[in-house]
Amino acid sequence: MLAAVFLMKGCGIFDTRDPEEPSNIRSTFVPPTTPEIVIDNLSFSILEKNSENYIKCISASNFQYVPDSKSQLLYGQIFQNWDPLAEKRYMDNLISQTNTNASSVLFLDNETITQITADSASYQADYIIVYQHNRVNLPKSATGNLLLTLNSDENYLYSITRWQDFRQNDTDFTWSELKANFSN
């Protein structure tokens, strides 16, 4: 028995291993005390490929996603019960199928923020989201127009409660199509 212990000790089973490098997940997230900060956090979450920060931009309890009309026809079954978990799953799938060093960015233009009440706002913008994922037969960018409703909670922190996607041209590949294709 004692010989077996010496044999195992000699093969390195009791040696300490080298520590692993920490995972370098970039994180730029500011407490969303204004609707504008939610938009900034959303943009940074895409740039940094950070699904945890992405999902923090969306209301955990009161969220509705409305795809563009063509995507609703094509992917109605997928969007039927779309919720924050579906958003997280889509983003995790997109990130997992993208090389770490590949670019991802959200461009927003023609932005309009309208304060509806003291604790809610509406945000509208044209968007281009570029994600250099690994899927061969799928566009690397999506274009359209989005309309977000943002509400603050009991802690005065804003999140997206309603997200509407609109197609600008019939030939556009929209964010809804990107979400549908990476939904599972």
Secondary-structure topology with pairs:
Elements lengths: L1 H9 L24 H13 L3 H6 L7 E3 L2 H11 L4 H13 L7 E14 L2 E12 L9 E12 L5 E9 L8 H7 L3
Notes on the protein architecture:
The N and C termini lie far apart (52 Å). The mean pLDDT is 90. A 5-stranded mixed β-sheet has the order 1-5-4-3-2. The chain is of the alpha+beta class and 184 residues long. The chain has a single domain, classed as Nuclear Transport Factor 2, Chain: A, CATH 3.10.450.50. It contains 6 helices and 5 strands, in the order αααβααββββα.
Briefly summarize what is shown.
The chain has 184 residues and is α+β, with helices and mostly antiparallel strands. Helices cover 32% and strands 27% of the residues.
Output the keywords.
6 helices; alpha+beta; five-stranded mixed sheet; single chain; 184 residues
